[in-house]
Amino acid sequence: MRRTSLFFSIVILGLSISHAAAQTSAEPEAGKEPSAHAQPSADAQPSADAQSSTSTEPSDNEPALAQEMPSQRENATTSSNPISTVQWLSQLQRVISSANFQVTFVQTIAGKETVPYLWRHGILEDGTEVEQLSLQNGPGRELIRINDVVSVFEPDVQPYSLHSNHINGPIPSALVYHPEELLEAYEFVPVGRARVAGRPAQQIRIVSRDNTRFGYQLWLDEESGMLLKLNMLDLQGALLEQIQVTAFAINPEPSDYFSRINPSSLPKPMAMGTSQTREHSWDIGYMPAGMREIKQDTRRLALTGKVVEYKLLSDGLVDVSVYVQPAEDALGGDLALRNELSTFLTLTDGKAQVTIVGEIPLQTAKAIATSLGPKAVN
C-alpha cells in the first residue's frame, strides 16, 4: 500500500507539470469539431487529394508546393553538394509555418493503442495564421489556433484559450518550428534515402550529444520537406513512440474548415496568475548538454499543502521538472518508476527530498537528482 500511495503522490506531482505546461501550450487527447464555433463537414475526413498525395504514382493531385518549388529529390541526388540535414530541417520549418496543408497521422506508444490525429494549417488572405489539431477517436478534444491564441475544446470542461505561438501536440514543436535551437543538445546525422507512406524520403537520426537522452529517427518527404515519420528510441534502440503520417496534401488555399470558424465565438485568453516565488536555497550541479533552466518558482502541493521549490529544465526537445522539499515533508521513501515515456524518480538525501519527472533515461534523472547542492553564496 505504501508504494501504491507514493506512486499516486508522484503522479500528482507529474500533473503539476502538465498544468504548468498548459499555461503556454496544450496536449491533444481526443478530437471533435465543437458546435460552438464550427459545423462539421465531409472535409473532416482525409480528402481524395490527401489520399492521392501519398501515392507512388504521378498524379494531377500532387501537392501544390511540390509544383511550385524545385524538386528536393533531384537536388539531393544529382548535386555535387547534397542537401545537408540543416537544410532539410529548414525546409520542414518552412512548409509547416507557411503552407496550407492537411495531414493525418497516427501516434503509437509501446504497449498502447494507436491514436489517429487530423492536423490542418493555413494562411488566410489577410495574413492570419490558423491551425487545428484534433484526435479522431474518443469523446472529442480539439485545439484551434488563430495567430498566437490557442483555444481548447473538450467534453465536460468549459472551453478556454491560452496565448501560444504553436499547438503543442504529439509532434515536438521545437523540432518542426525551431530545429536550429536543438543543435547544442543534439546531433543531426544523415542516413540516406528511404520510402515512407509510399513516397521517397530522407532519413535523419537525432542523437543526444552526450548520450544522456533518448534518440530519434526522422523521415522527411523529398518533394515537399513534410514530416512523414518520427520514432523515439531508448538508449538500447528500442522503439518507445512512433508518429506515422498516413496521408497529406499541400494546397494553394486553406481548408474550408477555417472559413467556418467565428473568432468572436472563441473564449478569451486566460489571464495567467502569478506563482508564489521565493529565493531557492539550492542549485543543480549537473544538466545534460544543451539543457538549461527556463523556469523557477515555488508551489503548494494540493495533496499535503506543503510548499515545494520547482525548476523546469529544457533542451528544446525534452522538458524535465525538478521538485525539492524538506525531508520532514517527504511523501515517502525513494522510488523510481517509468510511466509510458516518462521517468518518475524520488530520492531523499540529508535534509531534502528531490523528485525528477521527464522523458529521460533513469540514469540521467539520477545524475540530475544527486547533483543538487546548497546554493553558492556570493
Structural commentary:
The chain is α+β, with helices and mostly antiparallel strands. The protein has 7 helices and 19 strands. The protein has an 11-stranded antiparallel beta sheet. The protein starts with a helix and ends with a strand. The relative contact order is 0.17.
Distance between the termini: 45 Å
Number of helices: 7
Q: Strand fraction band?
A: 35-45%
Strand line-up in the sheet with most strands: 6-5-4-3-2-1-11-10-9-8-7
- Strand pairing plus helix content: what structural class? alpha+beta
The H-and-E topology, N to C, reads as HHHHHEEEEEEHEEEEEEEEEEEEHE
Short overview:
The chain has 378 residues and is of the alpha+beta class.
Topology:
Layout lengths: L1 H20 L26 H5 L11 H5 L3 H7 L6 H14 L1 E10 L5 E9 L5 E7 L6 E5 L2 E6 L2 E7 L9 H5 L8 E11 L2 E10 L6 E7 L5 E7 L5 E13 L30 E3 L7 E9 L6 E8 L4 E8 L8 E5 L2 E8 L2 E7 L3 H8 L2 E3 L4
Antiparallel strand pairs: 1-2, 1-11, 2-3, 3-4, 4-5, 5-6, 7-8, 8-9, 9-10, 10-11, 12-19, 13-14, 14-15, 15-18, 16-17, 17-18
